[in-house]
Amino acid sequence: RETRPNFLLYTTSECHFSNGTQRVGLLDRYFYKEEEYVRFDSDVGQYRAVTKLGRPSAKHWNSQKEYMEQTRAEVDRYCRHNY
């Protein structure tokens, strides 16, 4: 039986602080096969494709109003809460 190759899909969440907690930013980065393909930057407020592979995901997520409201709130829930 032939072994199929493994493909790793993972996400990182980075909190960026400047001037104490007065300026807080969240960067969610999505990777497939060790290549970042889409990201959410709280300073931008929406998902942006990093590669062609990320375009459908960014378009879909950005079109989901409730999901985007929750995502934008993550900077306070995740970053400020854990500072």
From TrEMBL:
Annotated keywords: Adaptive immunity, Disulfide bond, Glycoprotein, Immunity, Membrane, MHC II, Transmembrane, Transmembrane helix
Gene3D superfamilies found in the cross-reference section: Class II Histocompatibility Antigen, M Beta Chain, Chain B, domain 1 (3.10.320.10)
Subcellular location: Membrane
Superkingdom per UniProt: Eukaryota
GO aspect biological process, one term: adaptive immune response
GO-annotated cellular components: MHC class II protein complex
Domain MHC class II beta chain N-terminal: 13-83
Main location: membrane
Membrane topology, from the record: Single-pass type I membrane protein
Transmembrane segments: none
Protein name, UniProt field: MHC class II DRB
